[in-house]
Structures are given as C-alpha cells and as structure tokens.
Amino acid sequence: MTDTAARPVTDAVAEVKAWLTDNWDPELTVAEWWERMGTAGWSAPTWPAEWFGRGLSRPEGIAVQRAITAFGALGAPGGLGLLLAGPTIIAHGTDEQKRRYLRDIVTGQKAWCQLFSEPGAGSDLAGLQTRAVKDGDEWVVNGQKVWTSGGQVADLGMLLARTDAEVPKHNGISYFAFEMLQPGVDVRPLREMTGRALFNEVFLTDAHVADDACIGGLNSGWKVANTTLTVERTGLGAGGGAESGSAATPGTVRGDLARRAGDFVGRRTAGEGGAPAFAGGAEVLITELARSGGKLDDPLVRQDIARLHSLYEIGRYTTLRVKGGADIPGVGSLAKLSMSEILRLQRDLGLRILGPLGTLHGYTQADRDALEAATGNALAGMMTELALFSPAPSIYGGTDQVQRNIIGERVLGLPKEPSNDRVVPFKDLPKNG
Length: 433
Known about the structure:
The chain has 433 residues and is of the alpha+beta class. It has helices spanning 9-23, 30-39, 58-71, 80-92, 95-106, 221-236, 282-292, 299-323, 331-354, 365-375, 380-389, 400-411; strands at residues 112-115, 131-135, 138-146, 156-162, 173-179, 185-190, 199-210. The protein folds into 3 domains: 9-108, Acyl-CoA dehydrogenase/oxidase, N-terminal domain (Butyryl-Coa Dehydrogenase, subunit A, domain 1, Orthogonal Bundle); 112-231, Butyryl-CoA Dehydrogenase, subunit A, domain 2, CATH 2.40.110; 278-398, no CATH class. The protein contains 12 helices and 7 strands. A 4-stranded antiparallel beta sheet has the order 2-3-7-6, with no helix packed on it. It has a 3-stranded mixed beta sheet with strand order 1-4-5. Mean pLDDT is 89; it is low at 1-6 and 270-275.
C-alpha cells in the first residue's frame, strides 16, 4: 500500500481533480465511465494499489469522494460490493478470488447483497440453518434469508451457510460468493412502514455455488463474517463516511450500465442499502426545516441542533483518530450505537419542528407528490420518512443490544452469559423458532 502517513489530504484531492479534468466525459455510458474510474483506482481509493485502489487513508478517501461530487462527475458504484464484499475478499480471499471478483466491483459490473440473517437467526446469527451440502465440486444450498438489502438488483450475494452440523455452531459455517441469478433463488420484497421496499426475503431451493467460491476456507465463515460485520458497523456508524454514493445502480439487473453517465449526475436515490439517501445529511435538512418553519430562533430547537452537530462531529473525529492510528477498542460498536442515538434525535427534533404536519406521510410517489402540493412543504416528506426509518439502524448490522454485549464482553472483559453453544454440536442444540 502507498505510504500516506505524511501526505496531506489536499494532495489526493488535487490528484483526482487533475485526473477528472482529463477523463470525465458525461457522454460515456455508466459502464464505460466506471471501467475508466475503477481501473484507475478512484472507485475504491482506500483499497491496496495492487487490487484496484490507491492505498489512501480513510480521510483521503472521503475527501476524494467529495471532490468527485463537487467536480460534477458520476461517483463510484454504490452498494454492498464496494462497502462490504470488496474489503472482506481483500482480507480473506485468495489471489485468484480477488482477481475474479474485485474488478467487477470497482467497475460496477456486478452488484452484491448480503445473505446473512434468517427468520430464526438475527441477533443470534451463528444459529443460522441454511444448509450447503457438498456435491462434487459444488455445494447445493437450501434455506431462507431475510432483510436482504438490494437483493432484487444483486448479481452476487455474500452467503453464510452451514456446511457442518456435527461441530459447534460457530465452527460449521462457510462464507460463499453466491450467484443470485440462477434457478432456485426467489427474491421477494418486504414493504416497510416508510412505504418503500428496500429489503427482501430470499428463498433458496437446491441452488448451487461452486466450491472455489468459498471465501476464507471451509467452515471458517464465522471469522470471515465478522470482518464483514466490522466493516459494516464502522460504515454505518457515526462518522463512518460513505465511500460511494452514485445514483446509478451497479450490476446487470437494473440496466443502468448502458445509460448515459451524465444523466445520473446530481441525482440521489433512496439507496439499495436500506437507508434513506438523505440520512447522512439530516443535520442540514433539519436546520433548513427549522428555518422555513420559523423555529430556528427557538432556544430548545437550537440546542438540539447543536447537540446533533456535536454528535456528528464526535463521530467524524473518532473516525479520523482511528485512521490516524489510534487504537480504540470496540470503536465499530461505539460508532453504531452513536448513529442509533443520532437517528432518534433527528426523529424527535424533526417531528417537533413539523408539529401536526408530521402526522402526514406519503407512502407512494404519487402520495408524496400530492402531499407536497397540498402543504407546499418539500422537506416534510423527507423528514417523516426519516422518522419512520429511524428504528432500523438500531436493528440492522447488529442490534444495539448486540453492540453493548460486544463492548461489555470484548472491551470491558465482563463475563459472557452462561452457554454451551460453543462446545455442543449444532445438530444437538435447541433451534430458534
């Protein structure tokens, strides 16, 4: 990796601006632009240089992303490929697997989803019951996954499956790069109380995955999954800073790759990852909401806006400390707990500013358009969606309770709850409902 310890962020920004001046062309297709961007190392600039990155630090990576947006170019491919799958494969994949999967991630050719949670294995993820049975040089997979963000547009999934029920539950799990577009994969949307359907349940019936698509080795999936979860918690947590946010959807399903790149510049989507696209900028949204509603001079509103800003800044500076080399035990869990608190504060403050208008919400695009026309308030619908979405971050990516357990047991050294699930074979354990 490139040594960035003594190099200022401005160097990386100047470099990407110069590259954009020479290379950005809005007439290119999305696929052509992402090919150019990804192979030059700018889709994932924090990745190692030998694997389609530039070896930049996290602060440099965030600054580069902002510079690309400010320049007016289309950003890197969004979604879970760049956020989760890529870093996990870099950490645990073989060189052949890195060659097979990473280029398609940074060039947006393939979109990914996360096939972890099950109806009976959410907080107790290691209790998953999806089975993979060896058949020659393939595995046959049967089971059900739920809360699968972006499953409806994914080419590949990060699949956790039980490959050995004769050993304790954490020891018999394997992690596969799973082809979603095959017979036996049924993706069904789950409509949320926001009105959107960003999550899915996925039914797997005699689906197949190649043996050489096992990441990190047979029955080592729990260790690999924890890398994915750590990256997820850090990315979702306060101060995480998205490294990609393109309005175009990667992969072959949505059809954006063949469209004109310039048509997506300046657009925002609701996101395939589950969160409203404006969630990270809600501080600005709420300030403008208070200003337009004549409540910006209310001392209690101002106090809570200042508190919200402080929480964002604490998260941002914590991230900078970690990327600068500080060792903060449990920082991923702390960041995610902080983000849950931020979302609750945003909800309560935003609805207090809206008053009775906060009881109205448009559940379809037609409803949202009609509500905006009737009220003349373009921000109210975004705020009510954020409020309805606010319980989700305290659940997905590991519940708040799970994060507190991690901090208590792994950071503070508190005793674990009594359990024999690490010594008893999975087949002999009582199963979740």
